[in-house]
Amino acid sequence: MKLHSPLPERRTRLEIIPLIDVMFFLLASFMMVSLTMTKQQTIKVNLPVASATQSDFKPDMINLAVNAAGDVFYDKSAITLPELDRKLAERFGKDPATSVYISADEKTRWTDMVKALDAAKRAGFTKVAFNVKPANAAKPAP
User: Which domains does the chain have, with CATH numbers?
Assistant: First the structure.
């Protein structure tokens, strides 16, 4: 026996409009967040003191040094910038994952340090850092 309800039969409906509103809101939010993400293209260093430093000379890394006069040294031997470009390109061909450490005198101009950094970047190295003196190092007497 079939009983009939006095209420009319209603079909279930899925409301799409609120769902679309929520999806557009999420899309707009993600777009706004992605626009605020920028890649920093600056040199971030705080010289001359740092708490964690690397001062050992190891064969699996390249050590560049720049003195106060602007002379560049490749693993303790003086070198010109064109020779430095050539040597770094050769070394990059052997091992592109090699780390490059740049050390400089306190009185070295930034221009000279950036020339060494630029040479390493032109050769293709991505692991480039500046060596600094340890924070607990004894300060020289004035």
Answer: 49-134 (3.30.420.270)
Residue 82 host element (H or E):
helix 81-94
Buried-state track 50-87, b at ≥16 Cβ within 10 A, e below 16: eeeeeeeeeeeebbbbbeeeeebbbeeeebeeeebbeb
Coil/strand/helix, residue 103 = strand
User: For residue range 27-71, what is the model confidence (pLDDT) as tens digits?
Assistant: 999 988 887 776 544 444 444 544 444 444 455 778 888 888 888
Nearest-10 crossing angle of helices 110-123, 81-94: 40
pTM for the model: 0.53
